[in-house]
Task: structure prediction
Amino acid sequence: MNAPEQEPTEGLSPEALELIDTYFGRVHGALLVAAAGECEDAMDDLRDHVLEELATGAGTSADVTRVLAELGPPEVLAARYADDTPADEPRRLSEIDSVRLHGKVLGMPYDVRVPNSDRIASRWWNPMDPRVFVPRVFGLGWDINFGALAVRVHLVRPDDEDEPFASVPDAVITATLILPSLLVAVTLAMMAIAWPILPASVPSHWDVFGRPDQFWDRGWLVAFLTIVSVGPLAFAGIVQLRRRIALNRVAATAVATFMATLALSQFFQTTSYVHGAEGMVPTFAGIAVAILLPFVLLVVLSRIGRAAEQRHDLHKTTKKESV
Amino acid sequence: MGTDTDSRLSQFRKGVVELAILALLHRGEAYGGEIVETLGGHPGLAISAGTVYPLLSRLKKSGVIDSAWRESPVGPPRKYYRLSGTGEAEFDDMARAWAGVTEAMDDLLRNGRTR
Result:
């Protein structure tokens, strides 16, 4: 989650990179709505292909324009991909996929590819895909498609936004980073304050009855919680700085919020043990809050996007009527 | 056997769902839930919200349909879909092609059964 990109983009000018990013941003936007997710694998391959093509030349903006022109307009390309994707049966794609880095084992989906913002976004917020549980972005199991969940509880409709969060003001999307930043700041500050009172050895694992059964050095605990909270936040920051599409930026922030909340709850779990309390209340409460916070964030932003679309359309209608 | 039939049906359906949506919007504009409900009322099509919404979005991207938020007589504003100019032409083409196919298939199936 904290290793943002792995493409061989060295040697390309910032303008050339921006051209590629813009192109794939548009393909992705069109694909997301056209194929109910899951198409990002094909897009990753295509992006690799483009970068390989460019690796043989100077990689100037002119080269990029030429290579991208061969692929055609982004929306047309996306439509072609979407036609090959069974949008009504998104499950089937993973079943027929034979790439070993992701697939299914004992009926459970797995994915060990380095996560990228496209993949995260299409799994975490896809209100058009009715599946609440979607293959996990990284690891074994499932992630929650908060978009489907929001539709289930009637907080949003699948077509509320033409493109997720695209109508949300840019400043608001950037400001979402405040939430995980605050959580990480609180976690780091509390660890610094608690350091002197932490015993040298603290629990690293609890059994099913909520009793600690493994221990590690307090330094490892602090290092671990720092990495799992700061890493995703840094990733979200990079996605924002790279001006990815709104959906990717919001989803990366949601993931950072999720991870920061879990880290904070693990810190509380440890300190509650140090204070002699039993049980795993902090962990379970942490999981609940870690799910709730990104959910609320995503729904609120979707509502803001919908309101902006409505204002635009309804205003137009009123103007027409008054003419 | 059942799975084979299912996948064959789903292949049929894929091509038909788009035409079904265009046919519905040709009759007049409709909002998403209405489209899902109306098409869902035809069990033979086996259409669900998971099929309709991505398709609506794709049709909108390709300019076949337009959408706009409008006040609803009851409840909150809704996003209404309607055929664009190109959509109307596309629908005419598809409907004509479909009529040709069904006529030919009806004929073939009928002859196949009576023989």
In short: The interface with chain A takes residues 10, 13-14, 17, 32-33, 48-51, 53-58, 60-62, 67-71, 77, 79 of chain B (CB under 8 Å). Chain B has four helices and three strands. Residues 85-114 of chain B form the longest helix (30 residues).
